[in-house]
Amino acid sequence: MKRLFLAFMIPVLVILGTPALVGSLMYDGSGDEHMPVDLYTEDADAIEMLYAELDASITDIETNPDEDLVYNIHEDIINTAIYQAIKDENPDYSPGEDCSTTTECFAFGEMQQVEGYDVELGLIGAWVSFYDTNDVADAGQLALNLFLQVEANNNLRYKTIVEFHFSFEDDPDYYYLEFEKVKIGRLPVPKSLIVGALGIIENQAGINFENELGEMKLGDIDLQNLSYKLSKDEILQQLNSADEEQNDVGAKLSQELLSISFEKQLIRFDIIEKELQFIIGISQLRNEAGTDMPDYLYTLHDQEVVDDEVVYGEFNPTLFNPETHLKDLFTEYLFNLALTDNNFVIKEKAFNKLIYSEADGFADTREMRTIDLGNGETKTIEFGLKAIWFEFTPDNIYIHALFRIDDIDSEVVITAEEISTSPTELQFEFSKITIGKDEGEADGEYTALTDLEVFKEIFADFGDVEFGEFNQDGDLIISASRLTSLIQGGTVDGSVEVTEIILVQDGIELAIEPTSTTLKDVLQDFKSELNNVIGSEQFTTDLEAVLDTTDGGAEQATYDSIVGLQEALLNEEPIATEDVEELFNNFSELDEQTQTEFVETITNLIDPAIFADYESLFGEFSSEDIPE
Description:
single chain, alpha+beta, eight-stranded antiparallel β-sheet, about 30% strand
């Protein structure tokens, strides 16, 4: 910081070599009045101020959903940050009327030899000012103000304010900051004199500014024009270099998202009305109010009823048991096999519950930040990734990722087209990404990406995932062997295998076969016995003693589902998988005791020998295995 301080002091040192100009023109003691000492408090916190401003910006776009997010970084925030930076180097710094020691009154000082004088420069304070069109000829200008005390040979002492004025430009390809002018007190100093002063200071103070400033890792400084240019590509290259060292997939993704933001001008800076505005093209990224993850994922959360409305709490891992869920899948397969003779379909709901549970409700991908709004008021802001889930169609899969900042939702949807060439593998190539797209929204009102080469590289780094893997080209592979392991999680290992997989609406269809003739015979016998039980009059008669068939509730709905299945079997009509799903949906609404009695009604009618053979090879069959 001291080197930067010296660079800013160049005009002062040069003009001090011309004593005739020093007296009245350079003197300016108004720094005590203009320096923002009201911000210099023990609890000064620029970060909290940034969050409070973020809250205000979010509140603004909540009431104006078609507008972009404008994040105003006003002077007080930056000046508080400057104060905190000085305090980091000089903990005693506390300027103002009550300061008494050098370390309290000055940020720091520096002694230099100029034209035979011993010149001591003391920095009393530093702050920035923004200027809009009402104050200066051109908008987009800012000034760095340095309040100095200059003492020469221990007998000439005075104060002055040095104002360094800059213009700022946010170009699609770079950021550009150029020095415009300087004022020392009331003395304007031409830009050309500043450039000439560089050579004098280099000679007399032994400072090579080109070497000193060349140590900067980013951007280019032009000493002839007194400008600084930072290429946005250079920012990305710097991030890429860091990624290569860390080999961090998340960092690569962040870099690509930043590149997209630069390319599409989704992030912009401007200086308007005395504020540095950080503008995010949120209108092209956000979704309509009410956008949320699927409702069934909330069944894995605590909940309570408040004023006749269900209020969801935190993710509760005890509400969902993945092992039991896998057993549910296999039991559902048995019922479908017995009643429909169709292949089994694993619904996207089952996949998504497993993913959500394994990720612990994505709690680690979100952050809660409580900010101080002043006057004793606080607000908690949630931001981060809320959930990931899959959607299946006969030709594509869609990977949904929902991001949230407070009450603003942005849904990212990645489209992957099926390019499978084998009946035992589903292969998907990623073709498109949309961000913030709502139903019926026209092109240009959301962000769409079709160049996914970098994303494919990122996917390739993922390797294995819950039920598949990414190959070296970044394609997603869902294989029969992977799904075999998934299904076997609900039965005895090695008892069944998936022999074919087909992408269908809302799920993946599986052809499942026992792994041996013995297992196949046992499963076939159990299938036939289960079919006979469900189609028997005795079953409905016994159920009438278990289920209330008069109140129109879940018990009657479950009974009616059984009656409907029996009628289809009697009339030799085909039974659809959806009819079996309806039975299970109704069953899930029963209380635990009634569920147990329902299952016992089935097992009591199954041949004991067949039932024993089945359980010895495929695992227990009980009420806990009925899918919900």
